[in-house]
Amino acid sequence: MSGNDTASSHVLIDDVTLHLGRPVTSDHRWVGQSESLRSLLACWLVVCDEDLPLAPRLIGPPGIGKTTLASAAARSRGQELYIFQCTSDTRPEDLLVTPVLAESGRISYHASALVTAMIRGGVCVLDEGNRMSEKSWASLAPLLDYRRYAESIIAGVTIHAHADFRCVVTMNDDESTYEVPEYILSRLQPTIELGFPDRADEMEILRYHVPFARAELLQLTVDFLQKAHTLDLEHSPRDGIHIIRYALKRLAQAEGDAPGTGHPLSTDAAWLEAVQGVLGEDATDLDRVAAERERALQSSAAGAGLSLDDLFFGDHQPPGGFGPTAPDDES
Ligand SMILES: Nc1ncnc2c1ncn2[C@@H]1O[C@H](COP(=O)(O)OP(=O)(O)OP(=O)(O)O)[C@@H](O)[C@H]1O
Ligand SMILES: [Mg+2]
Question: Is the overall model pTM greater than 0.85, yes or no?
Fold first, then answer.
């Protein structure tokens, strides 16, 4: 069966009919960090007849782009994409085949996203894999090594993976997760660790997702995120996208309330409100922003040769400061 044949919605395996799932359509591009994409694609290469693809784990903090990277890799190979969202409630049968009582009163068997990808030769992203219990992981041991099959106890069938089947597991390093057992981790190799994007890539990511955002908002957000990265805070591109979107909505709303009067809400004020709304009250401190801004204006007026842009957005940041705000800058 070809990876692009979407016509078949069921297959017969050992006299059992399995109803297949549908692929996910994702047209989001992977921006920058091309080495991470290349690493993942390398894992999925098969270099000779005796070779097998690897099933890597993709790790990194929430919102850094793990699922997006896996989806973009599937897309760049021209394969169908299936995403299985792992949770602490995922049972072994959910991962493989689920029995469903059909209208006819008979039991029908429904393949999971994983099993559908195995059968159709697609890519399966086991998303947030470390939220799943050891019991569920156990059922995947043969699939993740040279055997490349899974056994559904419920349907009573053994399902062999198509030669084109590829798999990647994403994992967060937050605390709401299980320990994945060692014998499973040893099959999920290699580890690809996704780091935060550099300034140019982060700008490109935000511009890609919010192309209608004004440059000032993008710049404020990139400065903020880059500063957070250097301080080892886990503020992610996703946070940045949310901050910009929320700030834009507040600006548009303010404009709607008082049409034709210019923006009654300043861009800085909308942005700061958005940072607090997305990341919490402590994420920034408006009093400090005002003080910082006052000092910047004075410096500028004193003819220090710095423009507001230099002070707010350039590399001349005081230690600990980000953009117009500096929550931990006591100077
Ligand atoms: N390099 C990138 N190119 C394009 N979009 C990106 C990139 N990095 C992050 N994003 C965007 O950031 C957001 C978060 O990405 P994604 O959902 O893939 O993160 P994640 O690491 O899977 O998060 P979680 O751990 O919460 O599942 C998405 O909107 C995604 O498209
Ligand atoms: Mg994800």
Answer: no
